[in-house]
Amino acid sequence: MAKPKYRHAHQQERLKWKPVVEAGEAYCAEPVCLIERAGGSRWIAPGTPWHLCHDTTGTIWIGVGHRRCNTSEGARRGNRMRRRQPIDLAAGRWTL
Asked: pTM for this one?
């Protein structure tokens, strides 16, 4: 079963964003867009995988993002919480 934050309200919010993404009017809301960093664009092309993104607390939706950017951000945040280390989001790497 999905975590509570991904249940009904989350699915309803995704439905609100779906026409925006399908119309080609969506841009990655993640602070670090891996696609842009690799020389691409924050633009989310219609038909490509996308996620509804949360803020760093995981409680507020911040918009949509590339699937790759969202899953990477979630993993980075989870790893940081487990290791209790800050992340330099601008550089996209651990700080010492």
From this structure: 0.72
